[in-house]
Write a structure and sequence with these properties.
Elements (H helix, E strand, L loop, with lengths): L1 E6 L6 H12 L6 E6 L7 H8 L3 E4 L8 H14 L3 E5 L1 H14 L3 E5 L11 H15 L2 E4 L2 H7 L8 E3 L12 H12 L6 E5 L8 H14 L4 E5 L5 H10 L6 E5 L4 H7 L2 E4 L8 H8 L4 E4 L4 H4 L5 E4 L4 H12 L2 H18 L2 H16 L2
């Protein structure tokens, strides 16, 4: 089976990491996976990872969504390669893949990764409407990465076939203790300091301002604790200013974009997700799979994946609750260990890449059946 994965870009994010997971999971299966990105992704660690798995990646950049030249190149590419199925990810790819699928006759599976669109560099109403129309009338089926994502989008999809396939992540490989100590020291200055980690785009959605506020409160009881946030985004300057104003210089750091997140997870003591809204965040899944105790807000499918005994849940936009949860875990190392062990086992039992891939392959086959 030849499958084209079309994605808006390969910059670091949850949808992009799932491409890496899919590339790894398909290596032992009779599936030829090709990735088409709508941007020039030079320097992307996701691009490097896909190529390391032996996956072919093609790029179709353009100055605007409906570029006639790009559309022609995509149509020519899809026809020449004779793909069996196209699966698309993120707004622009969902729109263009549905159009290309209609024009080439190749069945399209659109994918929805979130419960809402965040306004950044495009008009969310216009692009969201285009995405909904494209998926409703141009795709043969739509995958929602979690129950919350399905519930949020179902009213707009009419009778479109909507399939829930929760995200998956591979279990992490344990990190040698010497390397772990070295990385902790590089981040905090002292490997003995408790290390709290969060990972995500520096955007309104991720609620990092709440996390900084909560951590400032946490330091009253745990003055040696250190907070590290990995990710880049438009709020970096504002968050740095807040960090300074809260007196967290030397006690918290914005690490920027990192391509060693598995190592950061292995080095940390606690993971926090402070998001205001989510679908099924890959960052939380990765933390659970790394055996970390997780503190997360009750958004999207997070409460469904974080079953009892894997971490602590708080309300969104509630820094005081985040602070109390941090105090609880930083004060109790045995509890942290127990939560982390249960989290890793839960991920192994219910969110394995192999089971996730099998669900996708069954969906693809159903579209090809006469």
């Amino acid at each position: 089976m030849r499958v084209l994965q079309m994605i808006s870009s390969l910059k670091i994010g949850g949808a992009q990491k799932l491409q890496e997971t899919l590339a790894g999971a398909t290596t032992a299966r009779p599936v030829e996976m090709v990735v088409a990105s709508l941007r020039d992704d030079a320097g992307s660690p996701i691009l490097a990872a896909l190529r390391a798995h032996g996956r072919r990646v093609e790029h179709f950049p353009a100055g605007k969504l409906f570029s006639p030249g790009r559309l022609q190149r995509l149509i020519k590419f899809v026809r020449a390669e004779k793909f069996d199925v196209i699966q698309s990810h993120l707004t622009y790819a969902n729109i263009l893949a549905a159009l290309v699928g209609r024009l080439t006759g190749v069945p399209v599976v659109g994918t929805l990764h979130n419960v809402k669109i965040e306004a950044k560099h495009y008009n969310p109403l216009r692009e969201g409407m285009l995405e909904t129309l494209a998926l409703r009338y141009g795709a043969r089926a739509v995958v929602a990465v979690g129950q919350g994502v399905a519930d949020a989008n179902r009213p707009n999809l009419g009778r479109q076939r909507l399939v829930i396939i929760p995200n998956a992540v591979p279990l992490s490989t344990p990190m040698p203790e010497a390397a772990r100590t070295e990385l902790r020291c590089a981040i905090t200055g002292d490997a003995a300091r408790p290390l709290v980690l969060s990972v995500g785009r520096l955007s309104v959605q991720k609620g990092f301002g709440d996390l900084l506020t909560a951590f400032a409160q946490t330091r009253i009881a745990h003055p040696s604790a250190f907070l590290a946030v990995a990710g880049s985004g438009e709020l970096r300057e504002a968050l740095n200013e807040q960090l300074t104003a809260l007196g967290l210089t030397g006690h918290a750091a914005l690490l920027g974009a990192r391509n060693d997140v598995p190592h950061l997870l292995a080095a940390a003591d606690v993971f926090v997700s402070s998001s205001w809204w989510e679908g099924l965040p890959v960052a939380v899944l990765e933390a659970l799979a790394a055996g970390l105790p997780v503190i997360a807000t009750r958004v999207g499918d997070v409460p469904l994946v974080m079953v009892e005994g894997t971490g602590l849940l708080t309300d969104a936009k509630a820094p005081d609750q985040l602070a109390r949860a941090l105090n609880t875990l930083l004060s109790d190392a045995p509890q942290r260990h127990a939560l982390g062990q249960r989290a890793r086992q839960h991920m192994q039992d219910h969110y394995s890449p192999e089971a996730w891939l099998e669900q996708h392959l069954q969906l693809y086959q159903s579209l090809l059946a006469p």
